Amino acid sequence: MHLLNLGILAHVDAGKTSLTERLLHTVGITDEIGSVDAGSTRTDTLALERRRGITIKSAVVSFAIDDVTVNLIDTPGHPDFIAEVERVLGVLDGAVLVVSAVEGVQAQTRILMRTLQRLRIPTLLFVNKVDRRGADIDGVLRAIRERLTPAVVPMGTADVPGTPDASFRPGVGVGALDGLDVLDVLDVLAEHDDELLAAYVEGRASAMSHSTLRVALIAQTRQALVHPVYFGSAITGAGVDALVTGLKELLPPADGDPEGPVSGTVFKVERGPAGEKVAYARMFSGTLRTRDRIPFAEGSQEGRITAISVFDQGTDARADAVPAGRIARLWGLADVRIGDALGEPRKAYEHFFAPPTLETVVVPGPGTDNRRLHLALTRLAEQDPLIDLRHDEVRRETAVSLYGEVQKEVVQATLAEEFGLEVTFRETTTICIERPAGTGSAVEFNKKDDNPFLATVGLRVDPAPIGSGIGFRLEVELGSMPYAFFRAVEDTVRETLGQGLHGWQVADCTVTMTHSGYSPRQSHAHQGFDKSMSSTGADFRGVTPLVLVEALRRAGTQVHEPMHRFRLEAPADTLGALLPVLAALRAVARTTETRGAGCVLEGDIPAGRVHELEQRLPGLTRGEGELESAFDHYAPITHGQIPERPRTDHNPLNRKEYLLNVTRRVGS
C-alpha cells in the first residue's frame, strides 16, 4: 500500500473545493457531491466557510485509488489566508494546481506555482470549468506556458468547450500517447534527458516507443521538472477520471522508514470539544505510538501522546500508532505550536510566502470582557501564528497582523460566532520595518555610573545583507561567565529588536557582544545565596535593552515600507487616466507594453495603497482592468513624516522611565 499526501491549490473561485468534492465522489467516498454554493462541502466544515463559500482553514480527507492511499489536503485560495497554504506545503508529496478555463492564470496562481517550483513539489495542473461559457482552452494553455512554466505536457484537450457537453479527450494517457504529436512531448521531455535529446536532434523521434516516453514522463513529473495538464469540469466530472489516474501513476509515493528515528512536523493546531489542543502532523520517519513521550520545539518541550487518529476512507479513526508517510491527529501535546518538529528535527521551519504587511487594533464592543477577548485572540493565534498578537499593556490594546481586509472580516466573525465577542477594528495600517543605517556601540559596566544591574554588557550593531535576518556573535570568551548569562543576553537582544527606534521590528543586522562581566555567587557566613551581591539572569535581561537601544541610537535606523510588484492590464486608451492615479498612490511603473488595444504595466506600489488601487481600478478602466500584485521587497521611506509605532515594552529609549518600570528606581 503506497501513500500520497496531496495538496489542492488554486486562486480563489477557480473551483478547488468543487474539484475536491468531485474527487471524493469519483473514488466512492461520498454518494452525493457537496456544493460550495449550498454550503454542503465535505472539507469546508466551519459555518463561516459554508456561509461565505470560501475555504479559510486547511482540511484533510483520505481516500484510496486502488493500492494508493491519498491524504488530500484542501487549502484556502484567497490570498488573505496564504499562511494556511504555507503550512501545508512542507508536508506534501505532490500537488494539483487548479486553473480556471474562464479566468485563466490569476495572481495567486502565479504565486503558488512559483513556490511549488521552488520547493520542487511534483505538480499536476487541472484546467477547470471547461463547461462554462467563455472557456478558452488555447488561451489558457498559452498563458500557462507564458506566465507559469513552459515545461507542460497537455494530457489531452477539451471537446466542445464552453458548453454543458464539454468533455475531456485524452491525447496522452500514462499508458498511451495516441492522438498527441510525439514531437511536442519529446520537445519538453528532452530538455532534461540527454538520450531523448539525442533522439530528437538525430531525427529518431518517430521511432521512439510510447513506453520510453511514458517512463520519461513519469520520472520527470516526479522530479517536478515537467507538469502534466488536464482539462475538465469539477461540476460535470469531465476529465476527473483521467486526473485520478494521473494522481496514481504520475505523482511520487510518500517515503520514510517506519523503523527509523521518529521525525514529524506539525502543520495545523486546533482545539477539541473539551478545549484540548489537537495537532495535525505529517510523519517523515519512524513510528509514533500512544503513550510515547516525544520531544518537540527543537527539544525544548516534551509531551506524552495520549491519543492518535489517522485519516482513512473519508474520515479519521483512532489508532495505536502512526508510521512514516502518514498524517495524523495527535492529542497530549499541550504546548505544541504550528511548525514544531516532533522527535528529530528535519530542518528549520521556513516561510515560503511574504509575512503580513498590514496591522489593525482590535476594539472591544460594548460589554465585551477584555480578558475573554485576550484568551480568544490567543486561541486564534495558536491556529495562525502570523496573526502575531501585539499587546500594549499601557493602552490596554491588542493589535493583529493581517494579509488583507477579508481576513479582518473573518477574524471579526469568528470572534462573534465561536466566542460570543463583538469587536470592531481601527483603520488598517501598514507594517514597516527598521534597518540599521550604520554601526553603533554601547556598554554598561557592572557597579559603575548609574547601572543598577549587576552585569556588564557591551554590544555593537552592524547592518547585515538584506534578507539575512538577525545574527548574534561574541567577541568575548565564552568561558568568561556562565553560559546562562550569554543566553539571557542573546534572547533579550532578539526580543528587544522587535521594536526599534521608531517602534518597528529591526531586521537584517548583526549584534556582537563586545563586553561581559558579572558578580560571582556571594554568600555570608553560615547563610545562603545573597541575591543582592550576586548576578542573576534577570540582571542581564534588565541591562541588555538599555545597551542595545543606545547602540541602535548611535547607529541610526531607517524605516522601510513593504512594496508590492504589480502587473496591470487595461485598455490602452485608459492609460491617460491611470498614470496620474498611480503617481498619486506612489506607484512607479517600470515597464509599459502595448498589446493591440490593450496595455500592460508592471512596477512597484506601496503595500498600503494596493487596496485603494483595487477599488478605483474598475472606474478608471471601464471595468476591464485586471490587477495582480504580490509582496516584493521593503523600500526606505525617504519622504514625508516617518511613521511611528506605539511601543509595547518598558521603553528603553527613555532610561528614567525604563528603570522605573523595571526596577522601581531611577539608578544606583
Task: Give your account of this protein's structure.
The protein is an alpha+beta fold and 668 residues long. Strands 2-3-1-4-5-9-6 form a seven-stranded mixed beta sheet, with helices on both faces. A six-stranded antiparallel beta sheet has the order 16-15-18-11-10-19. Helix 12 crosses helix 13 (537-555). The termini are far apart. Residues 172-179 have low confidence and may be disordered.
Quick rundown:
This protein is of the alpha+beta class.
Work out the count of structural domains.
Answer: 5
Q: Could you say what the CATH architecture of the largest domain is?
A: 3-Layer(aba) Sandwich
Task: Name the structural class.
Answer: alpha+beta
Cα-based radius of gyration, to the nearest Å:
28 Å
Sequence stretches where pLDDT stays below 50 over 5 or more residues: 172-179
Largest beta sheet: strand ordering = 2-3-1-4-5-9-6
Overall geometry comes to globular
CATH superfamily of the largest domain: P-loop containing nucleotide triphosphate hydrolases
Separation, N- and C-terminal Cα atoms? 71 Å
Strand content: 25-35%
Q: Give me the count of strands.
A: 34
Number of helices: 16
What CATH calls the topology of the largest domain is: Rossmann fold
Q: State the helicity in percent bands.
A: 25-40%
Mean pLDDT: 85
CATH class category of the largest domain: Alpha Beta
Characterize the main sheet: 7 strands, mixed
